[in-house]
């Protein structure tokens, strides 16, 4: 027979509670009481529920997997879970066949007089915890992923108390500092900080304590490795003492010792380079003043001998003196070239917008005025605006155009072209001629100091023009290269892309 709520003393509570209240006969599992919340959870109407047994809600395969004690009570009326009012967590089935998770509290009910059975019943109070379980599972999965991330992170993650006692440190402590995490937990960060960095480190720590929440404080300090060496750590600190999960100051550190060493090495090399440049400037000064004077004397006295004592010298003697004077002149030109090259590397740079076309037209005008008898076709692109130092770019084009002018001397229909094209995603400029060209086997020598691919008897020059071009291009953060073919001309390419390695931003 069915049991009425008032028979169990639950009256109006039975209809209003949000948890399902289900009563079943202990010996058969037949449902005899079913409230509206049970309908909402399981989907069965009260009339449908009274035709069911408990195993329709918690089938045997689910019940035995999670709750063998409940099965024993329904079969025998005795079981350890019933006597202790145990809260059970197990799966159940809705009318639609959907599996849900429920929490069930089972309680024995005293025999009901006149029930027509042995009077043993089970009261089940059931709560649907499906969404909560899903949320908990998602949280566990997220926590697992976070834990795996921290456990395998290359960076050092550390959580400290407000007094800087270490509460947690990631396994990367072994790789970074040589300590096992358990060796450091419970110790104080002050035990590891370099004595010279303590004041700075705890100033950063105090700043973090003063900025709770999402504010990050940059930290950088030297920390003692287990082997006694010092490692540079750089990172951020976040005050999460008020966070209910973290409850501490969270540090994320990265080992930057190698970078610091590289910076020190770079600084040392920069100092050495500065010394070398100073010595080079002194050398250039010596060339300009100390060596030029005796060289001029050698040239002058050779010319005096040729002019005043020509009658007393035979042809061989005159030839020797002529060679001495010519060699002196050439040496003087080379010294002047070296001085010019030195100044190219030391002169300050001023960034501005420069028209290569305008510079080239001025240079062409000068070349034509110097040799009006020559007929050379010039082709210059219209839009050649660049960013760079006007004086150095003028010197660059002077050398390239003069080279093209020189090496097309024997070409009856000479042509010199200044243009641009795209190379590797940046603009590349070029000066092309149809002159004598060169063998690409020797292309790597073109931009060296005093390197010449043609004899002095063919073309004048001392081999410094392209060396100067290479240095100017390098100061602008670009690169230079050449292509050519013997008898079919040459093309010199250069870029002026400024960025890493460029000096364009210096005045």
Q: Largest sheet at a glance? A: 5 strands, antiparallel
* Averaged pLDDT: 80
Helicity, as a percent range: 40-55%
* Number of self-contained structural domains: 4
The name CATH uses for the topology of the largest domain is Heat Shock Protein 90
Q: What structural class should be given to the helix and strand makeup?
A: alpha+beta
**Number of alpha- plus pi-helical segments:** 16
Q: Which CATH top level class of the largest domain fits?
A: Alpha Beta
Shape: elongated
Q: Kindly report the name of the CATH homologous superfamily of the largest domain.
A: Histidine kinase-like ATPase, C-terminal domain
Q: What distance separates the N and C termini? A: 102 Å
Based on DSSP secondary structure assignment, what is the total number of beta strands?
A: 17
Walkthrough of the structure:
- The protein is an alpha+beta fold.
- It has four domains: 5-132, Beta-Lactamase (2-Layer Sandwich), CATH 3.30.450.20; 153-255, Beta-Lactamase; 261-345, Helix Hairpins (Orthogonal Bundle); 348-495, Histidine kinase-like ATPase, C-terminal domain (Heat Shock Protein 90, 2-Layer Sandwich).
- The protein has 16 helices and 17 strands.
- A five-stranded antiparallel β-sheet has the order 2-1-5-4-3, sandwiched between helices. A five-stranded antiparallel β-sheet has the order 7-6-10-9-8, sandwiched between helices. A five-stranded mixed β-sheet has the order 12-14-15-17-16.
- Strand 1 and strand 2 (31-34) form a beta hairpin.
């Amino acid at each position: 027979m069915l049991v009425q709520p008032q028979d169990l003393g639950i009256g109006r509570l039975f209809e209003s509670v949000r948890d399902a209240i289900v009563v079943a006969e202990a010996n058969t599992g037949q449902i005899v009481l079913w409230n509206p919340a049970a309908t909402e959870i399981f989907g069965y109407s009260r009339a449908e529920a009274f035709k069911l047994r408990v195993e329709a809600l918690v089938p045997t395969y689910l019940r035995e997997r999670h709750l063998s004690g409940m099965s024993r009570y329904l079969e025998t009326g005795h079981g350890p879970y019933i006597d202790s009012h145990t809260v059970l967590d197990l799966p159940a089935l809705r009318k639609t066949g959907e599996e849900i998770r429920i929490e069930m509290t089972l309680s024995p009910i005293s025999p009901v007089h006149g029930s027509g059975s042995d009077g043993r019943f089970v009261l089940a109070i059931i709560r649907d915890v499906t969404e909560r379980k899903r949320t908990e599972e998602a949280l566990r999965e997220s926590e697992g992923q976070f834990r795996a991330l921290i456990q395998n992170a290359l960076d050092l993650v550390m959580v400290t108390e407000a007094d800087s006692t270490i509460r947690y440190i990631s396994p990367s402590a072994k790789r970074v500092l040589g300590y096992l995490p358990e060796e450091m937990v419970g110790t104080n960060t002050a035990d590891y900080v370099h004595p010279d960095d303590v004041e700075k480190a705890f100033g950063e720590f105090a700043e973090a304590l003063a900025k709770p929440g999402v504010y990050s404080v940059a930290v950088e300090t030297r920390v003692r490795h287990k082997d006694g060496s010092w490692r540079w750590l750089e990172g951020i600190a976040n005050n999460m003492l008020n966070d209910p999960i973290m409850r501490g100051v969270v540090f994320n550190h990265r080992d930057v010792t190698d970078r610091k060493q590289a910076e020190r090495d770079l600084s040392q090399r920069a100092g050495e380079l500065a010394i070398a440049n100073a010595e080079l400037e002194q050398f250039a000064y010596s060339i300009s003043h100390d060596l030029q004077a005796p060289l001029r004397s050698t040239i002058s006295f050779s010319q005096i001998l040729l002019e005043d004592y020509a009658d007393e010298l035979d042809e061989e003697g005159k030839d020797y003196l002529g060679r001495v004077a010519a060699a002196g002149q050439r040496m003087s030109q080379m010294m002047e070239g070296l001085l010019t090259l030195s100044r190219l590397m030391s002169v300050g740079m001023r960034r501005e917008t420069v028209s290569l076309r305008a510079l080239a037209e001025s240079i062409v005008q000068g070349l034509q005025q110097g040799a009006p008898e020559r007929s050379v076709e010039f082709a210059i692109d219209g839009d050649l605006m660049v960013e760079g130092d006007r004086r150095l770019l003028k010197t660059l084009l002077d050398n390239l155009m003069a080279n093209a002018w020189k090496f097309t001397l024997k070409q009856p229909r000479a042509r010199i072209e200044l243009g641009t094209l795209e190379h590797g995603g940046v603009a590349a400029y070029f000066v092309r001629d149809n002159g004598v060209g060169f063998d690409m086997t020797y292309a790597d020598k073109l931009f060296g100091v005093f390197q010449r691919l043609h004899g002095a008897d063919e073309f004048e020059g001392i081999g410094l023009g392209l060396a100067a071009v290479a240095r100017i291009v390098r100061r602008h953060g670009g690169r230079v290269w050449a292509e050519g073919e013997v008898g079919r001309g040459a093309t010199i390419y250069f870029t002026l892309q400024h960025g890493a390695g460029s000096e364009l931003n210096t005045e």
